[in-house]
């Protein structure tokens, strides 16, 4: 080998994270998901024992905090969702989450791509070296944001779907005096074995791609095979038999089920950073409020003081109604409100005309309850 | 590179199939699955246009064909199942499939590992070069075996689960005058998009393993990562939320759900040949009796003259009751008989004490019907 064809020495090679940070991300940016704000909550120590310096939370607010500070609503985000998606689906005049009435704060979870995430974190926690996070980490970080940056002392409602439901449960158990009402939609307080195996399978689909290289990929294209396998699993677990039986892709203008999977599911996920997704999937898998009570789920949910509506989706393949009901029954004064949908877990995307009406009806009832 | 460290020239290297054929297979053999017989049905032309020379079908018989030849029962096999498994689950004195009353023929499907399969087929159709097969190929091959080798002219019953149900439907549509009764258990006449995506995901899990090498692996260990991902998907789709919720792995002596997946699901699949499984998965994906009628499922199922009991499993994640019901409603005089189980699709393994009683009750009723 001659000097002329030698690769750059290690010190000259940019780290993967540096490559990713060197240009604006084509998906995680203000143009696609903004406007959002960034709050620096300082040095954040994760449950896994890492110190993330100058941790940034990306968030948006709608409406105004009233003088009594009684109208704050926290909305959390799901695996594929950002504050922009939540805003589009849940927030608006005349909706249950009406900015005329509530001060609505939507906080993007850590590793969401907006705010501190594997893909945009510098050494020594860059990309593949990013620490393992937990749902509790998200909730602790959000608590800092709400109490120290936004002056919020109580929450009229915490609401979120899927991983957002995990955060909602965690909030109600961890800060019971602060959370007055909670609406976990399509998610668990403690993950099941069934769902854990599903999450593991999603992670293996990506991580097994040689291009993933333990998170050291330099371009999304290098992980496309793995990401397409990840999409392929969502195709049957994120949707459901009912969706395909009724050909509900047709009203969206797709020519076939395969066309839908490529044009909707792949189009959604292939824009995202694989390492960010893997960090989130790991959180999702291990979500468990009973870690606060030595594994006793009843004791954990017994701490909840909020009025809770547990809102599973009728056709959800991995957060099925029955598992949600068993958790709901452990929460005093709670109610089970099943959301009817033929879209499976992806009912969350609110494509069905009947979806938002159901969500708003239940949230309006919950918000009307005296606490 | 010197001559001394050069690899063997191509002509000196054994083909993968030759390696696999050079020693008895540790799983696909008479000791594990026997005794079974092999019938040579001659040169078999697949629907994909390949001629498989001296095609071997592995089968077993129980009981005796009566003089009127009216008591023959055909049992087909599923993805992971061989004739031995079917025998253990379905056949016995006092059972619906009683060898004292019926001449029961269990035929292992092509690519099952027993009989002609990718792993044991010589050049030019060895291993990765094995032709694409279809459910119709299986049924045509079985028809040759039954009519030309075993002297069977009519079938009192065709019964099978999962891929065996696909073959059962294909039999009833393709040879309506020969099939008097049919019991497809936990399977479709025409595969759904939902199930097709599931099958695709299973295949991708294995084929994406660099060790699979397009089917040119020389040892099962080389594909273990992919096979474990394949197992990981079965863990949540083959079983179901109910199974894990009720911790039904406990009565089997496992310490945890993960222990069960490794000790039961992985233990089952990791013995099998990946290429054989991929060939079967491809058949499963494309199973569709309406290919006989230009895509018209009603027309295909309208050809059926058999009395049919459609027997879905209540918790099946990929052959759900509702999809089975829609097919059943297209078959004149048929009935829907739902098998109650908390094991999902793996209810087929008949681990639950209530399972065989249900199967036998329905099959006894079906066999008692005049035709």
Polypeptide structure, described:
The structure is a homodimer of 371-residue chains. Chain A has 371 residues and is α/β, with parallel strands linked by helices. The first copy, chain A, has one domain (14-195, 290-368): Rossmann fold (3-Layer(aba) Sandwich). In chain A, 37% of the residues lie in helices and 11% in strands. Chain A contains 13 helices and ten strands. Chain A has helices at 16-22, 30-33, 83-90, 135-149, 163-174, 193-207, 224-237, 241-245, 257-269, 274-286, 297-302, 321-328, 353-368; strands spanning 37-40, 44-45, 51-52, 56-62, 72-75, 103-107, 157-161, 181-185, 307-310, 335-336. In chain A, the strands form two sheets. In chain A, strands 1-4-6-5-7-8-9-10 form an eight-stranded mixed sheet, with helices on both faces. A two-stranded antiparallel sheet of chain A has the order 2-3. Chain A is globular, with a radius of gyration of 21 Å. The N and C termini of chain A lie far apart (75 Å). Mean pLDDT of chain A is 94; it is low at 1-11.
Quickly give the structural class of chain A: alpha/beta
Major sheet strand order of chain A: 1-4-6-5-7-8-9-10
Tell me the radius of gyration of chain A.
21 Å
Supply the CATH class of chain A. Alpha Beta
